[in-house]
Amino acid sequence: MSKEKYTSIFIETLAIEKSKFNENIKYNEIPEWDSIGHMTLMSGLEEGFGISLETDDIVDFSSYQKGIEILEKYKVSFK
Amino acid sequence: MTEINKKKIDLWSNIGSRATFGLAALELEKKIKELFVVTCDVSTSAGLDRFRKQVPHKYVDVGISEQNMIGVASGLSTEGFKVITTTFAPFQTLRCCEQIKVNQGYMKTKIVMVGLASGLVLGALGFTHCSIEEVGVLRSIPNLAIVSPADSLEVVKSLEAALNYESSVYIRLTGGSQSPIVNSEDYKFEIGKAIKLTDGDDVTIFSCGAMVHNSLEAALILKKNDISCRVVNMHTIKPVDVDSIKESAKFSKLIVTVEEHNIIGGLGSAISEELTKIKDSPKLLRIGINDKYNKGGSYTYLQKIYELLPEQISNKIIKNLT
Amino acid sequence: MNNLEKKNAIDLAKKLRKKILDLSFYAGSSSSHFGGALSSADIVASLFGEVMNFNKKNFKSSSRDRFILSKGHGCMVYYAVLNILGIIPDEKLKTFEKDSSDLLGHPVKNSEIGIDFSTGSLGMGLSLGIGLSLAFKRKEMKNRVFVLVGDGECNEGSIWESALCAPNLELNNLTVIIDHNNFQQTGSNDEIMSIKNLESKWSSFNWNTILVDGHDINKLTTALKSNNSNLPKAIIAKTIKGKGFSFSENNNDWHHKVMTNKTYQEAKEEISKND
After folding, report:
1. Residues B311, B213: one domain?
2. B191, B301, C1, C273: most buried, per Cβ within 10 A?
């Protein structure tokens, strides 16, 4: 399922401990999701979902939740 | 260094040379305990934010004072620290050039200097933030090696090699994020040893930094025109790999250098210095910046202006062969 | 400072001036930076005679205090003190400024004779001092670092980069001494690039700043030994360029000049009268 895949990409690319992960995480609010983490995450999502994110979307991608909205634009279904 | 695999290579390519450098420094700190980083108000720009936060006692930011940075780094080095300095290339090199001469050249105090965003990549900010001169200037300082990595994996390898090298090293980072992969798997990297990437009988292209990729693309175009090309990654501009030059001089009809630097003083000049020692050496075509500051613009725009795009490189080569 | 210490440092200052005179004569037609070496003689006597943990036994050891002659043209006072300490042999002094000598017109790094850095390009020594001080802090070593700079040298922007940096890093193991002799190469500070109020300038950069008579060894030593702050120390030493000989005091011709045999003999007579 896309949601599971999305979550696992977060956990893997940001190298977050599963126990520390929650769906409210935001960019720059946890040490793992810094600017480098962000680039790694974007890269992982592009590869995982076979998409190419636009710069504006990379910049706007400020949280797990916001990311869902953004990916839906790229026809990723979370239902 | 931790294991190098395809995932890492892809990640490093995506994030570009600067962020790769920052990550590599953090990795290397795990096994080089005397590692110390000195910067001039550039942590995020160098991918060093994590380093700064995770190992603050091995990191000092001296603010925007490059001459001071070199002195501080040199003082630390004399007390056994393995020091990396970094800031944007023009300031890492020209601003503190004399300090580099006296400390690294004359006193042979070993440090590794990493010049961020060298060449044309920051062209939209104007030429104060581009660096097309520094290799020429630094080449004339004894006891200083100069390396220009061809891709992000090479940034990782050259940083580790530089820290273990016998003298100070200046590492010139070029290109932006999404940097093309030249080395798709781990390989042996040695400062001073050029790497032959493709082979061919007609022309040899010596290149370094981000222009290696452009040279490889140019070679493909030339192949379609029945011109076979050897492309050599001359990542180390000083000391240049003399054997590699001698070998190509034996059979190539034309030797070409491609660099994101003034054709005066950089890789082209270094190779010409060697070719003049060889009797009946082939003609040398130096492709690079033609000793002019242009109006600013994007990286691609500037490569086009200076005729550094693959089609332009190949056109020049074809013209010079006829 | 006890009387024995005071006597030692004063004696050392006398010996330094004699050696500086000899060195200037050895330099011959190469000429030498006579004035700037003499203005620093009491500072160097205090440092090496009373303050620093540095001597013939420990000059290669990691525990020694460090001295950086940032005003490298003052090298004759440096070579003189290293010679008096027994680190530079007498025969070597005679090679001063000769072909292929280890003792040139500015110090050249040479651990065998106690010289840690090649200085002379003005404005660089304080940054080196910061690097050393930072290393000692990080390694939790008790070594102190002393950097001697000139007042003309304070024209260099790089000095102010360092001045800004050291207090920010709280390097209280670092001391800068400014040999404030009021002159530089082609004239007085006021004639070339006036730099008044050095004390308030360094103080405003947040250094623990002390103004002192640069020829009063007692006061110099007290200032150099004081140790009650988390900040680095700046000692503004008011000095006289060419101090010690009647012909050279405050005479900027002696910034860099040939020591003729005639002047040399007259000078030797002058100091022997003062002994």
Report:
1. yes
2. B191
Interface test with C, best of B62, B91, B100, B109 (most C CBs within 10 A): B62
Q: How many domains does chain C have?
A: 1
Q: Is B99 on the interface with C (CB under 8 A)?
A: yes
Question: Is residue B312 domain-resident?
Answer: yes
Residue C56 belongs to domain spanning: 3-274
Per-residue model confidence (pLDDT) at position C139: 97
Q: Are residues B224 and B166 in the same domain?
A: no
Q: Which residue type sits at B21?
A: F
Residue B106 in contact with partner chain C when CB distance is under 8 A: yes
Residue B84: which CATH number? 3.40.50.970
Residues of C whose CB is below 8 A from B60: 134, 169
pLDDT band at A35 (very low <50, low <70, confident <90, very high): confident
Contacts of B23 in chain A (CB under 8 A): 36
Contact B177 A39 (CB under 8 A): yes
Residues B163 and B213 in one domain: no
For chain B, the domain total comes to: 2
pLDDT at position B45 is: 83
Closest listed residue to residue B157, CA positions, set B6, B37, B7, B9: B9
Closest residue of chain A to B177, computed from CA coordinates? A39
Are C127 and B80 inside 8 Å of each other by CB? no
Higher pLDDT, residue C107 or A56 = C107
The pLDDT of C58-85, averaged and rounded, is 97
Q: Is residue B55 part of a domain?
A: yes
Give domain status of residue B119, yes or no: yes
Does residue B47 sit at the A interface (CB-CB below 8 Å)?
Answer: yes
Calpha distance B37→B21 (Å, rounded): 12
ipTM: 0.91
Do B240 and B100 lie in one domain? The reply is no
Which residue ranges form the domains of chain A, and what is each CATH number? 2-73 (1.10.1200.10)
Chain B with chain C: Cβ pairs closer than 8 A: 86
- pLDDT band at C227, cuts 50/70/90? confident
Name the neighbours of A, counting chains with at least 3 Cβ pairs within 8 A. Answer: B
Do C and A touch, 3+ Cβ pairs within 8 Å? The answer is no
What CATH number corresponds to the domain at position C246?
3.40.50.970
B106 and B200 in a common domain = no
Which residues in chain C have their CB less than 8 angstroms from residue B141's CB? Answer: none
Helix-helix angle C157-168:C125-138, to 10 degrees: 20
Chains A and B in direct contact, meaning 3 or more beta-carbon pairs closer than 8 angstroms: yes
pLDDT single digits (tens) B87-135: 999 999 999 999 999 999 999 999 999 999 999 999 999 999 999 999 9
The C-alpha atoms of residue C250 and residue C183 are separated, in whole angstroms, by 8
Phi, psi of A31 (to 5 degrees): -60, -35
Q: Is there a contact between B313 and B259 (Cβ–Cβ < 8 Å)?
A: no
In 3D space, the residue among B17, B22, B20 whose CA is nearest the CA of residue B8 turns out to be B20
Q: Please tell me the predicted confidence (pLDDT) of residue B2.
A: 67
Question: Which distant-in-sequence residues (6+ apart) come within 8 Å of B231 by Cβ?
Answer: B196, B197, B198, B200, B204, B205, B207, B212, B215, B216, B219
Domain boundary among B172, B205, B227: B172
Inform me whether the pLDDT recorded for B180 exceeds 70: yes
Contacts of C among chains (3+ CB pairs under 8 A): B
Residue of C nearest to B68 (CA): C127
Q: Is B278 on the interface with C (CB under 8 A)?
A: no
What's the half-sphere exposure (Cβ side, CA atoms, 13 Å) at C13?
27
Asked whether residue B228 falls in the same domain as residue B107, the answer is: no
Q: Which domain, by its residues, includes B199?
A: 195-321
